[in-house]
Amino acid sequence: MSNASWRPDALVQLTLLRFREFVREPEALFWGLIFPVLLAAGLGVAFRNQPAETVRVAAVSPSIAAALHQDPLLIVEQLDETAAQQALRAGKIVLVAEPGPESSVIYRYDDTNPEARTARMLVDRAIQKAAGRVDPVTADDDVAREVGARYIDFLVPGLVGMGIMGNSIWGLGFAIVDARRRKLMKRIIATPMPRSYYLLSFLLWRLLLLGFEVAVPIVFAVLVFGVPVRGSIVQLAALCVLGSLSFSALGLLIASRARTIEAASGIMNVVMMPMWIVSGVFFSSQRFPDVVQPIIRALPLTALIDALRATMLQAVSVRQLGHEVAALAIWLVVCFTLALRLFRWR
Amino acid sequence: MSLASPPRAVLLVRGLRKSYKDVVAVDGIDLEVVAGECFGLLGPNGAGKTTTIEICEGLTTADAGVVELFGMRWETNASEIRQRLGIQLQETQLSEKITVLETVQLFRSFFRRGPKPSDAIALVELEEKRDARVGALSGGQKQRLALACALVGEPDLLFLDEPTTGLDPQARRQVWDLIEQFKRDGRTIVLTTHYMDEAERLCGRVAIMDHGKVIARGTPRELVASIGVEHVVEFSTGMPIDLEAIGAIPGAREVRAGDDGVSMQVTELHRAMPALLDALGRQGVPLTELRTRSATLEDVFVALTGRHLRDE
How many angstroms separate the CA atoms of A212 and A36, rounded? Predict the structure, then answer.
């Protein structure tokens, strides 16, 4: 048996095959390489320097409108009652202020909409002030836009983690199902190639692209928004590599049996969708109930994003990230082993 | 390993069976291929040729039976056997984005020994297309590249599954020339085909398959001789004729009327032809077409099954 003979040339050739197929596919190249740039540009538009946000409200009587005009954060339209209701329903305004019985005021708004709640406070403050209220305590605003505590600082590590997950799972899943469907796989396993090499080549190929996919958004965020990278760059890179390997192994597992692109993309969405929501890409995963926290923390995307955030924003050393690193490593080993065992080769 | 196999048997198959759901694809097949020969599995589509060859290639597992390659079995020596096999699948698929040279380099990297990639490309006469992408090749060129990929490990046994199916006549002849070159180089080849002319031209020995069974085996010459017919006369007439009178011609056998005329097998052409013309003359029937040819493997298949190879 010469089963275990080490053939680096075969692994290099297989990885080259993945890489060549990718760079010679114009569409894949476009989305794979342009997407990180588009993402960064999108962030640039969303988080460009701008004054504090204004809210649009409607006033039903001239006196209320006059009171509201005093606050520069409110954009006020004076409408009759029907028109105001329609504008509210259409989302053109978030709150209607109308006169109630005995010189009271009624606010109509959706209290589950944070913007409407902000409007409620601003409108109420303006009306009370106009009616002569004097605040018992004087307060001055010292607006703090501290680097590392802004929303963009929170968001960038989340997007990087989400990008690693999406690229690994999509890139790999589609490439594998395609090779199986077009019987490329059947031909290649009719050779003495070690089968684990075939799967390993997908993981290595993802690592070749990872540098670009991760570096573009991070460098852009650092240069344009001053998002900090306070921990070590080496640690950040190592976490990205580990994350990419784990998600590639998960992608292999997802694609291990599927015969059609449709079947594979269904599973991919089922796997990724919950993590987009609970793993803290756009908002903290702490918002979910305590009961489910252990499950959320065990998910690979939560582990990766938490580790990236801690490294970038708080310079936490890898020694304190044992839980996250262990979670990613376990996902890697378990998924790769299962994929190798379950894999449908033809 | 109790099978008493002669030392020269490169491939030995005994009692092979394979069913898919409700279809019996291979129904008890025995084969023996010795070093240096070109062995053909001939039969119509659906006869079980590809299933048989893919079991031999270790790509499909049999329900029952024994396959030995070089005296080894798939269950115990898979990677050793793989190193010594060259395989061309039916309609081999290769990645379209990479070049001819890159494809051959990839396959070469899986084998311990073998020619340099550029030499393998030269062997199948694709030097001019060395840097062309696979997707830009013609059907015949793709098939030659598939042959290069099968040869790149310097195999002791070459499996070719329908090597010329879907090719135009010129490309077929090129592939035939290559296979004949491989034979001259002393390679052992097992090929499947549903073209009787291909089997006759390339194969030293042939097994004819139908419905998962081998229904005849031998050299093409032996097989043709076994049906006791040397010639086939085919003719068409302008009006209906009395077939019984034709059947009474000395040496005539198997007279059958088809859509495109009458076909009959005869042993002695020099006596049958005058008698046929005489019989038609007596019936007053004008001939619109007349052909004679030597009997082929096709006629063997017809004699054995009553069907044509390419009926289905």
Answer: 9
CB-closest option in B59, B77, B110 to A193: B110
Contact (Cβ atoms closer than 8 angstroms) between residue A167 and residue A32: yes
- Report pLDDT digits (tens) over A86-126: 999 988 899 999 888 888 899 999 888 888 898 999 999 88
pLDDT at A6: 63
Instruction: Say yes or no: B110 contacts chain A, CB-CB below 8 A.
Output: yes
**3-state helix, strand and coil shares in percent for chain B, rounded to the nearest 5:** 35, 30, 35
Q: Is residue B20 less than 8 Å (CB to CB) from chain A? A: no
B92 touches chain A (CB under 8 A): yes
Query: 3-state class of A109 per DSSP?
Result: strand
Average pLDDT for chain B: 88
Q: Residue A299 in contact with residue A331, Cβ under 8 Å?
A: no
For residue B59, which residues of chain A lie inside 8 Å, CB to CB? 186, 189-190, 346
Cβ proximity of A249 and A167 under 8 Å: no
pLDDT digits (tens, 9 = 90+) for B115-141: 999 999 998 999 999 999 999 999 899
Q: What is the maximum alpha-carbon separation in chain B?
A: 73
CA distance B85 to chain A (A): 8
> pLDDT digit string (tens) for A225-279?
888 899 999 999 999 999 999 999 999 999 998 889 899 999 999 999 999 999 9
pLDDT of B5 over the 50 cut: no
Contact B264, B254 (CB under 8 A): yes
DSSP strands (E only) in chain B? 9-20, 23-34, 38-42, 64-69, 85-88, 157-161, 188-193, 205-210, 213-218, 231-237, 252-258, 261-266, 287-294
B153, closest residue in chain A (CA to CA): A191
Token pair belonging to A50: 């701008």
- The whole-model pTM stands at 0.76
Q: What is the DSSP string of A178-231?
A: HHHHTTHHHHHHTSS--HHHHHHHHHHHHHHHHHHHHHHHHHHHHHHH-----S
Phi, psi values for residue B274, rounded to 5° = -60, -40
**CB A250, CB A140: distance < 8 Å:** no
Task: For residue range B194-247, list pLDDT tens digits in order.
Answer: 888 899 999 999 999 999 999 999 999 899 888 877 788 888 887 888 888 888
Facing residue for A17 by CB, picked from B77, B79, B106 = B106
Residues B265 and B246: beta-carbon distance below 8 Å: no
Q: What is the pLDDT of residue B237?
A: 84
Give CA torsion, residues B41, B42, B43, B47, to 10 deg: 0
Mutate one of A16, A20, A187, A195 to test the B interface: name it (highest B CB count within 10 A): A187
What's A314-344 look like in SS3?
HCCCHHHHHHHHHHHHHHHHHHHHHHHHHCC
Nearest C-alpha neighbor of A68 from the set A113, A103, A105, A115: A105
B83 to chain A, any CB pair closer than 8 A? The answer is yes
Give dist(CA A343, CA A173) in Å, integer: 12
Asked if B131 reaches chain A (Cβ–Cβ under 8 Å), the answer is: no
| Three-state secondary structure call for residue A285 | helix
Question: Starting from the edge strand earliest in sequence, which strands make up the sheet with B231-237, in order?
Answer: B252-258, B261-266, B231-237, B287-294
- Which residue of chain B comes nearest to A14, CA vs CA? B106
Strand partners, B14: B66
What residues of B are in contact with residue A2 (Cβ under 8 Å)? 79-80, 83, 112
